[in-house]
Specification:
Chain lengths: ~290, ~350
């Protein structure tokens, strides 16, 4: 009982760090541009497929694939922004929903056309194996992914606070009018923001591919998970994002180990709903 | 009733549409496949029109249509399989069960003022949750299909050999749902829903109880979805947790938006145009590449949403107005002729 719980918590914490990374991409896009990207989970799905394609074509390890997939997703983000998102900014809110849901259907069917319906996985990563601590096992690939995720989130915090591009992004989120007067071209800033958000999913996708397989409908789960993390964390706090990611990861992992693998999203849904009811700003949100 | 007033372009168009819908099955009598497709089109038209009440009028982006549809399907199916209760009763109970779930979720959600994006997300998640719950509940759901018995009388167990009866049942329900839409639109509830869809705080100040208005809209919407779910189960002849389909729920919301939010016939029109188009694509492209028809469909949805953000109903309205002025001028012109002679 105690051992199962501890094992579940360890797995949950490691997964949680990766969920925080996935939610980071969403948090940047939603927090800065106030754009609701319903297709975020499918960006992760697409990244995982790209990792698969690169990894199997060049015989690379999954964790190395973001070197190629991140620029690709950056490009994809810029194209998506100018083609679709930029045109929805001045429209009614529902137009954004319709367009991003349309994008979601498009990405899902594109994945189905290119890679067919069966799940795809890469060879086991070079960091395979376990670390044994007492009675508990830690999958090395997950530990590695979690550490990379945390380092990346820290780096992002530095970028947002210390560099001109990062400050321009935050300024645009605080007051779009004032930021444009200060010489911030919001189209460019938004395009950069969206592209960064989408290339973060490339990193996350590569990490997840080191221990998981991908299929065309996998985006639903990642989408729901990252919105739950974001709701829990609130906007504007990167440490909060990590804590929220870990809470979601632990809850998911404990539901799986104590209840039923098929119920993995039930616990996540429960916290999501409770947070919406009781604390709509999230636990660490500034607005 | 004034005969001349009744025969204005709008009513002629409506009568024309209903007439075609009534006659079409007789033309395509041979093709069962076509009948199923047209029944599916009507199903989407009903769901999109029901969505119009909560989404188009009340402005709540509900993405849980399939949660209520699936619950209605499972209620109807289980009642028939276990206790041999006719789906005619089952679908009403299914509608009520769906409404109960909607109230359980909606009461606290609206009470805590969850709205816009977060309402959309929580309703979308509800579909996923219902799917996992019914996947685990082996007595009722489970990973294998539970088949509905054919029984002795097709009218009792609502299991027909061809799709024609389903088509007409769906057509009747669609007309009823459109009338309900019309009735709500011009009632006190409709005016408060439209107002709170625009600005909730302002409406609250004016003394409208926005929570109870939204709950009423949600109740009507979820009831319709639940009832249709019962027929859905009968058409397919089984129930399965895959009925809780997130993509379908989203598609219904999109049809509502593309059709023109708040226009009574908009969502139904969008469903008829878009879903027919989707099925034609599926029939012509589906054999070559799985998923290609959905990609084309998605592109069209995006283009319509970007370039016609208010939906296709305003376009139709403009056309009708033009026809109306032309009509009036025509009759006036005739009168002028009579006077001058």
């Amino acid at each position: 009982m105690f051992e199962t719980a501890t094992q579940g918590i360890i797995t949950g914490i490691l997964m949680g760090a990766i969920y925080a990374l996935i939610a980071l991409g969403l948090s940047i896009v939603f927090g800065i541009m106030n754009v609701t990207n319903f297709a975020h989970g499918d960006f992760v799905m697409l990244s995982m497929y790209l990792s698969f394609a690169v990894g199997s074509a060049l015989a690379w390890d999954a964790v190395a694939t973001p070197l190629i997939t991140a620029p690709l997703m950056f490009l994809f983000g810029i194209i998506t922004y100018y083609l679709l998102i930029d045109r929805t900014l001045r429209q009614m809110y529902v137009v954004q929903l319709a367009v991003t849901v349309g994008l979601q259907i498009l990405m899902r069917s594109a994945a189905l056309i290119i890679w067919q319906a069966q799940p795809r996985a890469l060879q086991y990563s070079f960091i395979q194996g376990n670390i044994q601590i007492g009675d508990f096992q830690i999958l090395t690939s997950r530990l590695f992914s979690a550490v990379v995720s945390l380092i990346f989130i820290a780096g992002m915090a530095y970028f947002m606070n210390k560099t001109w591009a990062g400050r321009a992004m935050r300024a645009a989120s605080d007051d779009l009018g004032a930021a444009s007067l200060m010489g911030v071209n919001y189209h460019k800033t938004y395009a950069l923001t969206f592209a960064i958000g989408s290339s973060i999913t490339a990193l996350a996708g590569g990490l997840v591919m080191s221990f998981q397989q991908t299929d065309p409908v996998g985006g639903i789960r990642f989408g729901l998970l990252s919105w739950a993390v974001l709701a829990l964390a609130g906007l504007g706090s990167l440490p909060g994002l990590i804590v929220a990611g870990i809470i979601v990861g632990v809850v998911e992992s404990l539901t799986v180990s104590f209840f039923d693998p098929r119920s993995r999203l039930l616990g996540v849904y429960a916290i999501f709903i409770l947070v919406l009811w009781l604390r709509p700003r999230g636990l660490f949100g500034r607005r | 009733m004034n005969v001349k007033k009744f025969f204005n372009p709008r009513n002629i168009l409506i009568l024309f549409g209903v007439g075609i819908a009534l006659v079409i099955p007789l033309i395509f009598k041979a093709g069962q496949y076509t009948m199923l497709l047209m029944t599916t089109v009507l199903l989407y038209a009903i769901l999109a029109s029901a969505w119009n009440i909560i989404g188009g009028m009340a402005g709540q982006l509900d993405l849980a249509a399939a949660a209520y549809l699936g619950l209605g399907a499972f209620t109807t199916g289980t009642l028939l399989i276990r206790w041999n209760i006719t789906p005619w009763v089952g679908m009403i109970i299914g509608g009520l069960v769906a409404t109960l779930l909607a109230m359980l979720i909606g009461f606290p959600l609206f009470g805590f003022k969850v709205k816009e994006l977060w309402y959309a997300l929580s309703s979308s998640a509800l579909v996923v949750v219902m799917q996992s719950l019914f996947m685990m509940w082996n007595e009722v759901g489970g990973p294998t299909e539970k088949y509905l018995p054919v029984g002795t009388s097709p009218w009792y167990s609502l299991r027909f050999n061809d799709y024609m009866p389903y088509y007409y049942i769906m057509l009747i329900i669609l007309v009823v749902v459109l009338l309900v839409n019309r009735w709500i639109r011009y009632s006190k509830l409709g005016y408060s829903l439209l107002a709170l869809g625009e600005d909730e705080d302002a409406v609250e100040v004016l003394g409208v109880n926005s929570q109870s208005s939204k709950l009423k809209a949600l109740a009507i919407y979820s009831f319709i979805c639940g009832v249709v779910g019962g027929i859905f189960a009968s058409i397919y002849g089984y129930v399965h947790p895959a009925f809780f389909d997130t993509s379908m729920s989203m598609e219904i919301a999109i049809l509502g938006i593309v059709g023109g939010m708040g226009f009574i016939y908009g969502p139904a029109l969008a469903a008829i145009v878009m879903v027919s188009f989707r099925e034609v694509l599926r029939a012509s492209l589906g054999s070559q590449l799985a998923g290609l028809y959905l990609a084309v469909y998605a592109i069209i949805l995006i283009v319509v949403a970007l370039y016609q953000p208010r939906g296709i109903a305003p376009l139709v309205e403009r056309g009708i107005k033009k026809a109306q002025t032309y009509f009036v001028e025509l009759t006036r012109g005739r009168r002028a002729d009579i006077k001058s002679s």
